[in-house]
Design a protein that fits this description.
Length: 122
């Protein structure tokens, strides 16, 4: 497996297992690599629009496709995990990525948090 794929899988695995974005140092530690070894793959994943670094701190991730590291209007509760999607349609992908049943998902800004989506991951 090449370094780019290893970095990408480490990022998504961390989001999926912890619901938090890893830092570049976290990924380097997970892969037994140096920060310098994973910086170029981070940059390439950004160029491919698979992740967006935190503004002003490229060692931290703001979002990786589907997952948001910061609260958004699209909160998704899957099992015991509480995470945020970047867009409403990403709310569908998160349960599939986690291979779990979606408990609920809704835009937080709606009065009363009216559920807008209920589905099962296949």
């Amino acid at each position: 497996m090449n370094v780019l794929t290893s970095v990408k899988l480490a990022v998504y695995d961390t989001f999926a297992t912890t619901t938090h974005a890893p830092t570049i140092a976290d990924v380097a530690h997970q892969l037994n690599a140096t920060i310098e070894d994973v910086q170029a793959p981070f940059d390439e994943l950004h160029q491919e629009r698979l992740l967006v670094p935190e503004p002003g701190d490229p060692t931290r991730i703001r979002m990786a496709t589907l997952f948001s590291a910061i609260p958004t209007p699209f909160r998704v509760i899957v099992g015991t995990k509480n995470c945020y999607a970047n867009r409403v349609w990403d709310s569908i992908g998160i349960p599939a990525a986690l291979q779990e049943i979606l408990f609920r998902s809704w835009p937080q800004r709606w009065p009363g948090n009216i559920p807008i989506l209920s589905t099962r991951a296949w």
